[in-house]
Amino acid sequence: MNAMHMDQLDLNLLMVFDAIYQEGSVTKAAHKLGLTQSAMSHSLNRLRAYFDDPLFVKIGPRMEPTSKAAGMCEAVTDVVSTVRNRIVMSAGFNPAKARRVFTLNVTDMGELVFLPALLARFKKIAPECSLRTLQAPIEQIDGLLASGEIDLALGSIRAAPEGLYQQRLFPSTFVIMASTRNKELGDTLSREQFESMQHIVVSLTGRTSESYDKVLEEQGLHRRIAVVTPHFLMVPLLIDRHPDLLATVPRELAEVFGRFGVVRHFEPPLPVPPFQLSQYWHARFHSDPAIVWLRELVKDTFKSYPDVAV
After folding, report:
1. How confident is the model at residue 3 (pLDDT cuts 50, 70, 90)?
2. Exposed (0-12), middle (13-18) or buried (19+): which is 156, by Cβ within 10 Å?
3. What is the average pLDDT across 187-212?
4. Distance in angstroms (rounded) separating the CA atoms of residues 109 and 155
5. For residue 1, what pLDDT is reported?
6. What's the Cα-to-Cα distance from 93 to each of 99, 126, 179, 200, 219, rounded to whole Å?
7. Domains (range + CATH), the chain
8. pLDDT tens digit string along 5-22?
9. I need a labelling partner for 20 at 20 to 30 A (CA). Which of 43, 137, 147, 263 fits?
């Protein structure tokens, strides 16, 4: 590659290349970089002209790299990573002027807790930045944090991968959620009722041994499981359609849906220890000014939870 041709390569185009490769979508890549759809398409056309190759072609739902692009992916990722982690990092982070998409790995229940308050802070402090959420399996979180595809993981990860940094945010507790139309239940829930009724269990993996509320079995309680789902927000809907079911959920979920008069909640029939909500990040980005800012914002926003201003 001669010097003149090298001068025509805009480093921002490599960021575009990397984002499309990582996301498999021009639209998602544009959102990740904080660009409009037209700006992203224009950048992709410039890349195609520069390399004289389509680079990415539509195959099914994804944009897949051509053979030429596939041969470049590792090198481009290395360059982008170096720029982000060693050059941009040293320049600091100004949230008032920055344009960036921050990606959080969080469950749908976590979205209910974290997003309203964080979005309110972003509007005031970082108006040109935005939030995106993913819900990745636990076994993928370490790799996603290491690659920078997610910036923070928020929630309660009982078996967090070794090597991740973590910081406690606030504790929460479990309650038992039931339908307001279940007339068999009085003001309290007995152990006999708990163990005789059927239950909904939330587990990202689909295995009850890895459910969020397996602490119940650890306390000696037994459940008749009717359904296992990876979605917390599905639980109140199932209970509304099937009033004979119970579910053990974080108190925040029960209180939010309790306002609609569809469900109510009980304390567990045996004392259940609280669990911690934390934030997790990778060592590669421990000193990244943008991620440091994000971590401090999360910590500050939820330091007085549940009395969080939105």
Report:
1. very low
2. middle
3. 84
4. 9
5. 43
6. 10, 11, 48, 44, 46
7. 3-91 (1.10.10.10), 101-171+276-301 (3.40.190.10), 174-273 (3.40.190.10)
8. 555 677 788 889 998 998
9. 137
One-letter amino acid for residue 183 of the chain: K
Alpha helices in 126-168 (DSSP H): 138-147
Q: Would you state the structure tokens that stand for residue 246, as one six-digit string?
A: 């119970």
User: 261-285, pLDDT tens digit by residue?
Assistant: 999 999 999 888 888 899 999 988 8
**Of how many residues is the chain composed?**
310
Alpha-carbon dihedral sign for residues 85, 86, 92, 97? negative
Q: From CA 45, how far away is CA 42, in angstroms rounded?
A: 5
Cα→Cα distances 239→42, 109, 207, 256, Å = 49, 16, 21, 15
What SS3 state is found at 177?
strand
CA distance 173 to 110: 14
Q: How far is CA 308 from the centre of its chain?
A: 20
Sequence-ordered list of residues with C-beta below 8 angstroms from that of 241, at least 6 positions apart, any chain: none
Q: What is the pLDDT of residue 209?
A: 56
Q: How many degrees, rounded to 5, is the angle at CA 302 between CA 299 and CA 305?
A: 150
Which of 198, 155, 158 is CA-nearest to residue 176?
Answer: 198
User: What confidence score (pLDDT) does residue 2 get?
Assistant: 47
